[in-house]
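Problem: given the chain below (141 residues), write out its structure.
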Amino acid sequence: MEGIDRLIRNAKKLSAGRVFVLTFSEDRNKGLIIQLNQEFQLELGELANDTVLPFYSEVSQKVYGKPNTRWTLKDTGEFYESFQVVNITPEGLTITADSEKEDKDLADYGAILGLNDENLQRLIDEVLPTVRKYILEILLA
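Solution.
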């Protein structure tokens, strides 16, 4: 009976917010968020709100050797290197990056930070084992 009582006490300590913070405080999961934002969205010219960036102009392709693809916002790599996951709270988290460049702010192009629905689902699928791990740890403590 003591084991059941302990399990019930521990269950009262369980909250979605607590599990969220534990899960996304892991460097691996922070890195996954950044990877999804960069490789599975921006490098494809896609934004978090399911809109897209424009294609490189013909001039940019001929003069600067840009590919015939959508903008990736990765010309120097400096912007991508500045990505961080911060402010992890039970209510959510924030992705930050230095989007201000010499003559423009990349954020003016739209929702460059954040995950679209498809990548949010990828994230959920990937972190589910970690969520289960923390739930069990809290219940069985």
